[in-house]
Amino acid sequence: MIMCSALLLHLAQSFAAKPAGNSVQFCWWGGEEDGMRGSRQFVKTEALQLIRGYFNMDMVAAPNYVIGVYGNGPQRHFTDHLTAIGQPWLEGPVDGMSDQVPFLDAGIPVAGIDTVRSAPAALKNARDAALFGGTVGQPFDPNYHASGDSITNISTKALAICTTASHAALRGVSR
Q1: Facing residues of 113 across strands?
Q2: What are the residues whose beta carbons fall under 8 Å from the beta carbon of 82, sequence distance 6 or more?
Q3: Which of 19, 91, 163, 168 would you label with 85, given CA atoms 20 to 30 Å apart?
Q4: Average pLDDT of the residues in 59-78
Q5: What is the rounded distance in angstroms from the CA atom of residue 48 to the CA atom of residue 52?
Q6: Residue 84 sits in which domain range?
Q7: Which of 32, 33, 46, 91 is catalytic?
């Protein structure tokens, strides 16, 4: 959670310094693991007609990372950037595991990037290790929801990849 917040703060500062052509709203949700309460409340109470897309940046610095991108259309803003810089990425599932779900349910296009392909406890396979490095047979994030889940157990390389891709995606969609 802390790296997601750091990424969003960095993006918000960047957009404040050089505003986009279209508005970009940054939100931090509470209660994801408890039924996505924050994002559900937002969708239930806010005017949604001006929202062109929802971008989810969560789990962006797993120590045994992969780069996963998912969505139902606007994910191309992530994938175009990653492809242009020669960064491997894997298509991830658009599933019921994170705060994009209320937006999907409301008919808003979504996209997301993460370093765990929506499965932090999943074990890295040989194909993933060949693309991204790391340790085969170990979880993408062995510290997920555990006492070791701290800033000292992250991949700064994965965070940098997710940060530049998120910046490019939001700049692309906000033109």
Answers
A1: 57, 69
A2: 67, 69, 88, 89, 161, 165
A3: 19
A4: 95
A5: 9
A6: 2-173
A7: 32
CA distance 11 to 171: 10
Residue 112 in 3-state DSSP? strand
Question: For this structure, is 33 an active site residue?
Answer: no
**Sequence letter at residue 133:** G
Helix (H) or strand (E) holding 83: helix 76-84
Q: Hey, what are 161's tokens?
A: 């990849």
**CATH number, position 50:** 3.40.630.10
pLDDT in tens, 2-59: 778 889 999 999 988 988 788 888 888 875 666 677 888 999 999 899 898 999 998 9
Burial 112-133 (b: 16+ CB within 10 A, else e): bbbbbbbbbeeebeeebbeebe
- Which tokens hold the place of 129? 């290790």
List 55's β-bridge partners, or say none: 111
Longest distance between any two alpha carbons in the chain, whole Å: 45
Helix (H) or strand (E) holding 114: strand 110-114
What DSSP line would sit under 10-57, residue for residue?
HHHHHHHHS--SS-------S-GGGTSHHHHHHHHHS--TT---EEEE
Side chain identity, residue 33: E
